Amino acid sequence: MTATPEETPMELASTPPVLCLGEALIDVVLREGEEPQEHVGGSPLNVACVLTELERPALIGAWWGRDRHGRMIEEFAEEHSVGIVSGSEGADRTSLAYAKLDEMGRAEYEFDLLWEVPELPPASSLAHLHTGSLAATLEPGGTDVLRAVKAMAILGTVSYDPNARPAIMGSPEEVLPRIEELVSLADVVKASDEDIAWLFGEDTPVEEVMRRWSAQGPGLVVVTRGPWGAYARLSAERDMLVIDPLNVEVTDTVGAGDSFMGGLLSGLLDAGLLGSADAKKRLREATWNDVRTALHRATITSGLTVSHAGAYAPSLQEVNEVLIADPRLA
């Protein structure tokens, strides 16, 4: 395992890392008449980058090749001080996601994916396990992800983001049982309203799904709603909370959900509501006052991301500057 974040070495060395388990790949953007553009991507890797920028040590456990694209991923992780689980470079080739854009900017996706889970560090050495997206359902690695989640759920805390990708996940009926098994094992679940619409149908109210998932076990369920902010539900609170978005000029929404997730996890870890079996219990007994700061951090982090181009990961200083400017968010 290679994990040596550089910004605050003494502090980070003494803090167990968050393991982000899932895909790290190359997004290839194809526009007619233009050269292909390649960018490092993958939801779990994006979350890891947000965490380290917020001064929380993180590892990525993924599956890429020892090729040019794999080196791009490794350099990207190093730039963000994200540690790499040893063996993540064991694939025959690095996975690619092709986005073909039409003249309106709408994308059609094709995937060339390989996914297995490398040998992971013991759950007892981790602060928290985050997973989601393709890697949590795509076999053969999906079964190993489930096994890792089950192990971590006994000793500590888990978060999960379905991050639905219809082009590769199959039908909602095929994938929903696995998704809901992971929901039942997680302490924090974050989904988007688009995920809910694909899984349950456009006419199913988001609030109904949140109640359903909350009853299955998570202490906190959050559904992001794009420009309309987010909904949150705590297991110990009767009413749902409506979260307003940060008022920013949107450049693009790439990485917004991952940024929200990273900010939320950072805030919950700082509040002592994730990171141990005791924290799991505290989260299930938490009130809105206990989690409000973490939800504000998630909103700010996501807002700063969409105000920049690409999957921008804001620093803790940037987040704190927003808090200072508007103390109501503290």
The CATH class: Alpha Beta
- Strand order, sheet with most strands: 5-4-1-8-9-10-11-12-13
CATH superfamily: Ribokinase
The number of strands is 13
Determine the number of helices (DSSP H or I, runs of at least 4 residues): 12
The assigned CATH architecture is 3-Layer(aba) Sandwich
Relative helix content? 40-55%
Query: Uncertain spans, ≥5 residues at pLDDT below 50?
Result: 1-11
Main beta sheet strand tally, sense and closure: 9 strands, mixed
Rg on CA atoms, Å: 18 Å
Describe the structure.
This protein has 330 residues and is α/β, with parallel strands linked by helices. The chain has a single domain (9-329), classed as Ribokinase (UDP-N-acetylmuramoyl-L-alanine:D-glutamate ligase), CATH 3.40.1190. Helices cover 40% and strands 18% of the residues. The chain has twelve helices and 13 strands. The chain has a nine-stranded mixed sheet, with helices on both faces. The chain has a four-stranded mixed sheet with strand order 3-2-6-7. Helix 9 runs antiparallel to helix 11 (288-306) and helix 11 packs across helix 12. The longest helix has 19 residues, at 288-306. It is globular. It starts with 8 loop residues before the first helix and ends in a 5-residue tail after the last helix. Mean pLDDT is 90; it is low at 1-11.
